[in-house]
Write a structure and sequence with these properties.
This protein is of the alpha/beta class and 147 residues long. It folds into two domains: 28 residues; 116 residues, D-Maltodextrin-Binding Protein, domain 2, CATH 3.40.190.10. It contains five helices and eight strands. The chain starts with a helix and ends with a strand.
Length: 147
């Protein structure tokens, strides 16, 4: 094999390995868990219920009044949550809230800028519900299974 071909092959292999090495980190940033104040009586919540809570079309889960909290607009965890649970990209969710505000409807959920801030809100707010990256330390909150 000529030297230039070997060099190109080695460079491509190095690039492929670098991309594969970063894939788990990128995937981990997109994974999330839904968390709630420990007083919430349920462990499993249907996806459409969580969707309705975050669009403020419902305010109870398992008979308990809940207060949703969102992550900041540019966060990967909010992007993943919006696509998988709310079933709309963040830009569409923002458009929904602009329409609600214009029509005099509900205000969007409060936002926090990090997993730690969301967890603090949920821990200290009876009925608090939010979402954080799967790698976050969820001590002191209830992790809900969304089905």
């Amino acid at each position: 094999m000529p030297e230039s071909t070997r060099s190109r092959a080695a460079a491509l292999l190095a690039l492929a390995l670098a991309l594969l090495g970063s894939a788990p980190r990128a995937l981990a940033a997109q994974e999330f868990v839904v968390v709630a104040h420990p007083s919430l009586k349920v462990d499993v919540v249907k996806q459409y219920v969580v969707q309705r809570v975050f669009l403020k079309q419902a305010d109870r889960v398992g008979g308990v009044r809940v207060t949703p909290v969102d992550q900041s607009v540019g966060s990967a965890v909010r992007d993943a949550f919006s696509k998988r649970v709310v079933r709309q990209p963040v830009i569409e969710v923002r458009r929904y809230w602009q329409q609600q505000l214009w029509a005099g409807g509900e205000r969007p959920p409060e936002t926090r800028t990090s997993d730690e801030e969301v967890l603090e809100f949920v821990r200290t707010t009876p009925g608090g519900i939010g979402y954080v990256s799967a790698a976050a330390d969820t001590f002191g909150v209830k992790v809900l299974r969304v089905k």
